[in-house]
């Protein structure tokens, strides 16, 4: 017979580690998405969007996506800006 131990992860303290694990995966997927869009592989899409909006982009699609993210989390794109990232982007969107 096999003993199976069911652990309540909230009581065991493992919940924090599980939560951090999924957060790390989310950031990795976000950075992968930015790299697939020819951006810096170490920058998130939100950071890149925040920089474009701050610079006054006229790209309606970028403005729309930033608005959606900001509806979910007010100020999200500007708060997500990583000033030290973005230099390795393959394609940068030109801002007038």
Task: Characterise the protein shown here.
It is a single chain. This protein is mostly helical and 96 residues long. It has one domain. The protein has 5 helices and no strands. It has helices at residues 9-12, 14-36, 45-54, 60-72, 76-79. Helix 3 packs across helix 4. The longest helix is centred in the N-terminal third of the chain and has 23 residues, at 14-36. The radius of gyration is 18 Å and the shape is elongated. The termini are far apart. The model has no long low-confidence stretch (mean pLDDT 88).
Which structural traits does this protein have?
96 residues
Note the topology.
Blueprint (H helix, E strand, L loop, with lengths): L8 H4 L1 H23 L8 H10 L5 H13 L3 H4 L17
Helix pairs in contact: 3-4
Unreliable residue stretches? none
Note the overall shape.
elongated
Beta-sheet strand percentage?
under 5%
N/C terminus separation: 70 Å
Count of extended strands:
0
Number of domains: 1
The average pLDDT score comes to: 88
The structure class reads: mainly alpha
The whole-angstrom Rg is: 18 Å
What's this, in brief?
This protein has 96 residues and is mostly helical.
